[in-house]
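Q: I'm writing a short explainer about Excinuclease cho for a general audience and would like to include a description of its predicted shape. Could you first generate the structure from this sequence?
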Amino acid sequence: MMFEYPVVFVDIETTGGSYRNSRVLEVAVIRYENSEITKEFSSLINPKTYIPASITSLTGIHEADVVGAPTFLDIAEDLAEIMNGAVFIAHNVRFDYSFLKREFAMIGMDFSPQLLCTVRLSRYLYAEEQGHSLAKLIARHDIPFTSRHRALDDAKAILYFSQVAFNQHGAERFSAATSHQLQSQSLPPNLDKGELDTIKNIPGVYIFQDETRQPIYVGKSINLKMRIMSHFQDITSKEIRISQHVHHVETIPTGNELAALLLESKLVKELKPIFNRRLRRVTSYAMLMKDSVGGYATIRIKQGNVETGTNLNTVYGMYPSRMKAKHSLVETTRVFQLCPKLMSLEKSSGDCFSYSLGRCKGACIGQESTQLYNRRFELAMEHSRLKSWPFDTSIALPLNAKGEQVIIKNWMIQGYVDESGDPVYDADESNFDMDEYKIIQRFIRENRQFIHTLEA
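A: Of course. Here's the predicted structure. Afterward I'll give you a sentence or two in plain language.
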């Protein structure tokens, strides 16, 4: 017997790749128990939304095809009945599951079956083969089909594959493969559980890699294994996409959280993984520089970066683009009733336009005292300005148990102290990075007992 419990082979077609902003377009379910198909359900679904041309090209489903088709609400009870008490089987199971779970949740129904993935099943039983997509399985095992990327045919294809695998490997090995997966069902379909078994809960950096071992995501944690596993228990669209692409995990233990944070920042900017959007290195910032005109505090936007000799007291904000810097200034100016003219948002020879609307207190024409205006300016800009370097010299912060340390001055990495205690300065390291600034600032604030000041 292939399964000693009821299972359902499921496939869906959708209007897009993210369950958050896409809908189910077609669903097919084949219930299999006691070695035979007992029920079959297939239906187009009116998604009540636009069907992109790319989806039509892939599936052959046009908007005209779903006119008059039932909505998900219309079929939900029938769907829930056929899947009741069964293990949910699909190819890249978390994709299909996340969409259906979302659809059920939108109408107030819970949906939390056990999951079994035929991608992982194929990898377990046919580890020597290259590629485990449904197209590869169809070609490799001569699986008959009529219409690819239609729900019922794809559901039939994964049922056929399961039968082939059972017949070729026998009941004992097939059962071992499914039991192994059910015991670790949250793992990505292409990731070998053995790679995770060796990872410990220690501080470090982890790198998710695709089948060619190209990095797709870099992360860090003080508890590596726990953090890595948390990715695979999340059904957000980003985590599902990561799960579908990750084939390998590389870990780099570090001595503490600071070392992990700094290494993560460095690797993201060097490797540029496709799923990392934060921490990519910005070589030139839109800098908000403080100046003054007639005693009034002013701001100008300067493109560049902080250098070793830059007076940090004059840097009141760092943004990756001029547009974001200007957007921040506009909002700050509005909330604190600052003068757009003094904030470099408006050019005029007399009073600013906001003054005529009662939104500026007249600093642009000298009607507000410099003392009152400047006090409000400092309060408004406090959240974005760079903090002054709180030490007279460079400092060293610990990286690991070997005694290695990182040398920092003016929030910039200057070099490292090696195991023997000798400082090694690196001119290439001495550049300002906004992400590293935040990391270092937080570590200093929370771990002052580890700070070692160096002689000037």
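A: For your explainer, you could say: Residues 151-182 form the longest helix (32 residues).
Q: Perfect, that's easy to follow.
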